[in-house]
């Protein structure tokens, strides 16, 4: 008993017990962990990358290079991440029909499964923004008023305060945000496509992105009527000022002419 008590009081006794406990825990985990599921996920990911590489070779390599390194006709895709692929291909901007100041949105030619495979392959070339999950971009429970403040501060300079879009320099433009899905809005903020700056989570947290998405959906929704009456296309002060000059000033001129005419008649009589 004295020998056993002495061993218990030994300085290394606690370390030995901890190592034995860790070994036992690791053994039990190895015995009962769902290794088959993890292996199946790895296999599915490898297959997606392989299929994505085939699609890439046919539809993308001519501009972006056989290994995504880029060419004179297209930028490097190393490090752009799966989110960029999902946005560009999922909105029909890629593959591009022809070079230009800006690639427009057009009909999507790939299925979502094929887009996921392309995204998996491009993501394997280098780490980058990951395609968001529904919980990240769903506007449910978001603060629309806060989203409006954020949108007017960060986005309205190009997209207009209701997301109608607008012209930029050298043939470029900020596209309209009407009808754009929450997922693609989130990815655009994540990746900064074409002329748009990127807003990673370190700059604009996920919650703020959701607030902006909720605001854009609110101002572009079919059920939302303009509280001021005629919206004039929601294009902002230019169209509103033009309307005021043409109709407002025109009405004042008409009134002035009518008053002058009747004043002249009164004097004659």
Automatic annotation (TrEMBL):
SUPFAM superfamilies: Cytochrome c (SSF46626). It holds the Pfam family Cytochrome_CBB3. It comes from the Bacteria. Residues 1-30 form the signal peptide. InterPro entries: bc1_cytC-su, Cyt_c-like_dom, Cyt_c-like_dom_sf, Cytochrome_c_Oxidase_Subunit. Keywords: Cell membrane, Electron transport, Heme, Iron, Membrane, Metal-binding, Repeat, Respiratory chain, Signal, Translocase, Transmembrane, Transmembrane helix, Transport. It is found in: Cell membrane. Residues 47-126, 142-220 form the Cytochrome c domain. It is a multi-pass membrane protein. The chain crosses the membrane at residues 242-261. It is an enzyme of class 7 (translocase). It catalyses: a quinol + 2 Fe(III)-[cytochrome c](out) = a quinone + 2 Fe(II)-[cytochrome c](out) + 2 H(+)(out). Its EC number is 7.1.1.8. The cytochrome bc1 complex is composed of a cytochrome b (QcrB), the Rieske iron-sulfur protein (QcrA) and a diheme cytochrome c (QcrC) subunit. This is Cytochrome bc1 complex cytochrome c subunit.
């Amino acid at each position: 008993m004295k020998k056993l008590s002495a061993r218990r009081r030994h300085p290394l006794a606690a370390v030995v017990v901890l190592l034995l406990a860790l070994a036992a825990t690791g053994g039990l985990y190895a015995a009962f962990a769902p290794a088959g599921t993890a292996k199946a996920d790895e296999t599915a990911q490898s297959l997606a990358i392989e299929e994505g590489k085939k699609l890439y070779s046919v539809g993308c390599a001519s501009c972006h290079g056989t290994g995504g390194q880029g060419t004179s006709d297209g930028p490097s895709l190393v490090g752009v991440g799966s989110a960029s692929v999902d946005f560009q291909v999922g909105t029909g901007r890629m593959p591009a029909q022809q070079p230009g100041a800006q690639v427009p949105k057009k009909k999507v030619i790939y299925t979502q499964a094929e887009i996921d495979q392309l995204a998996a392959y491009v993501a394997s070339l280098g780490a980058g923004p990951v395609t968001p999950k529904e919980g990240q971009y769903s506007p449910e429970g978001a603060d629309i008023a806060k989203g409006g403040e954020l949108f007017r501060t960060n986005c309205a300079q190009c997209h207009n305060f209701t997301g109608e879009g607008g012209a930029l320099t050298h043939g470029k433009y900020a596209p309209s945000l009407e009808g754009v899905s929450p997922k693609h809005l989130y990815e655009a903020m994540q990746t900064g496509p074409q002329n748009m700056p990127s807003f990673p989570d370190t700059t604009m947290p996920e919650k703020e992105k959701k607030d902006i998405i909720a605001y854009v959906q609110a101002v572009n929704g079919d059920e939302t009527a303009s509280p001021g009456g005629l919206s004039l296309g929601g294009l902002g002060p230019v169209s509103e000022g033009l309307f005021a000059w043409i109709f407002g000033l025109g009405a004042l001129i008409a009134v002035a002419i009518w008053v002058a005419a009747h004043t002249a008649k009164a004097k004659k009589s």
